Structures are given as C-alpha cells and as structure tokens.
Amino acid sequence: MKLTLEPDKELCYHPFCSSWITRHSVEGKGTGIQWISGKSLEDLEYADDLALLSHSLNQMQVKTKSLEEVAMSVRLQVSEDKTKIMKVKTDSSQTITLSKGFIEEIQ
To answer: How many structural domains does the chain have?
Structure first.
C-alpha cells in the first residue's frame, strides 16, 4: 500500500508518519499471520512501502479499512493506483476495497 498526501492539502510528510499510521491501525487486533511464541506478524514495512498480512480476506478488509481511516485522520490517503492485493492459497473471489473502490488483484 502507498500512503500519499491528499493533493489539496499542505502537510509535510515524514517517513515516521507511515509507521505511526500502521501501528495505530493494526495494533492489538491480532489479524496478522501466526509467527513465533503465539505472536502475530501484522505488516512488513520497507522505505515507503507497506505490506499488510492476514490469514483471511475478511480480516484483510478490516485491516485495510482501519489503515485508511487512521491515514485520513492525519490528512493522508491510500493511493489506489499503487495499492495491490496478492492472494496466496485461496480460491476466493472476494475483493478488498478502499473507500473509493476496489483494490487491484495481482498474481
């Protein structure tokens, strides 16, 4: 997912903002993938890229909506053009959406 500044707003974007948004949108929800010692891995971050992780599409939709809401609270938005979803080991046709529409699925 990509977080981008809303075009009509003036706000200085800092890389730490992405970490804050992610932490506040997924913290304590237990919607990630099982990792070690009963803990879950919720996301992976690299530079300005973010990968949300989840075992189910329903959990991914909740996580995506939460991330978008927290981002909007600090006048940032999730870029629809740069956001993609990759499903692994599922035949489900369920789609994940943002407030402005569906997220493109990739192989």
So the answer is: 1
3-state secondary structure of 75: coil
Give the pLDDT band of residue 7 (cuts 50, 70, 90): very low
40: containing domain: 3-106
Task: Write the pLDDT tens digit of every residue in 43-68.
Answer: 887 777 788 888 888 988 988 898 88
Residue 90: what residue type? T
User: How do 84-86 and 104-106 pair as beta strands?
Assistant: parallel
In sequence order, what are the beta bridge partners of 76? 5
106: β partners: 86
Residue 11, both tokens: 């706000």
**Nearest-angstrom CA–CA distance, 15 and 34:** 27
pLDDT tens string 79-98? 888 888 888 888 888 898 98
